[in-house]
Amino acid sequence: MRKPKKILNNPEDLRHEIMQGIVYAYQGEMISIDEFSAVYRQGINPEQVVIISGGGSGHEPTFAGFIGAGGIDGCALGEVFTSPSPDQIIAVAKATHKNNGVLFLYGNYSGDSMNFDIAAEILADEGIETRTVKATDDIASAPLDRISDRRGVGGIMFLYKIAGAAAQYKKYDLSQLQDVVVKANFNTCTIGVALNGCALPQSDSFNFILGDDEIEVGIGIHGEPGLYRQKLTTADEIVDVMIERLCKDRAFQVGDRLCVAVNNLGGAQ
């Protein structure tokens, strides 16, 4: 059986090395909280609501790569495909908040939800108000009438940019900021296609296997099962399938203005 190839050092050091690399790339514009594997940006405006995200490592540049002007302000880095702990989230929230409230913005996964909720309760006891928006853009993970059950995947990038602009440039208060990001989230939909599984740093096997002539439509970013598997076909035919499903999910009208993003679902290609 084919085994995955990886370019890394010690798998146990991967999260820390990711954090080191991000901080170095920002050339003095990002501060790390090494004890809690969290990062935040320099120069947060004292008049703004702070936006904090977080999630498992392994999805770079999401999440911390969207820290910056017109983006989020801080991020807690979990281990690979693992939620950050409440302590990590609390540490970065305390380091960044400006007494105008904190918006938690992250993907809709059970571990993330639990730990961000715990952090919010503890911060509330200390007088720091938080609100939460969870990205739910993955149309393959639940129907529209159960949007709150959907996973958050690549569409969170749009939420980061909209939230960052509203908080940093328009100085939306916490309630206004939550409202505009909730609206943006509802109008964001995505779908993914996989050619093969992925492998965790410590593992010498893939988390699932597809046949040489197979693809999976609707796959999740951690390898969660998709909608179905089919024979590998042309790029045009695969895109037609994806676009058809995206358009059925939303009642687009002639003249609507859309913003389209295409990524490689985390594959280093």
Automatic annotation (TrEMBL):
One of its GO terms (biological process) is glycerol catabolic process. GO terms for molecular function: glycerone kinase activity. SUPFAM superfamilies: DAK1/DegV-like (SSF82549). GO terms for cellular component: cytosol. InterPro entries: DhaK_dom, Dihydroxyacetone_Kinase. Residues 10-269 form the DhaK domain. Its EC number is 2.7.-.-. Keywords: Kinase, Transferase. PANTHER family: TRIOKINASE/FMN CYCLASE, TRIOKINASE_FMN CYCLASE. This is PTS-dependent dihydroxyacetone kinase, dihydroxyacetone-binding subunit dhaK. It comes from Hafnia alvei.
